[in-house]
Amino acid sequence: MAISITQDIRSITDLKRNTNSILKQIHKTKRPVILTVNGKAEAVLMDAKEYEKINNAFNLLKLLAPAEEDISNGKFTDARAFFKEFKRDKKI
Predict the structure, then answer these.
(1) How far apart are CA 60 and CA 54, in angstroms?
(2) Which of 12, 46, 67, 90 has the fewest CB atoms nearer than 10 Å to its CB?
């Protein structure tokens, strides 16, 4: 999702004047629009479905972080050893 600096950076005033066309652009391109106030980035406006995708991916990453930390700290078991122990414990 590369941002186009000529199309995706707009002022709040531009948003007020051209709300419908900016929303159509966001839905068509799937790119967020950066809104500026006095030339400085103030907010980001994006397609709701794209936001949900990003939010879901972020939540998945948060779930994976503890597992990655365990691996970094050597707190893991080889899959073969795990299943061997699991089968033995469950008498499979």
Answers:
(1) 10
(2) 90
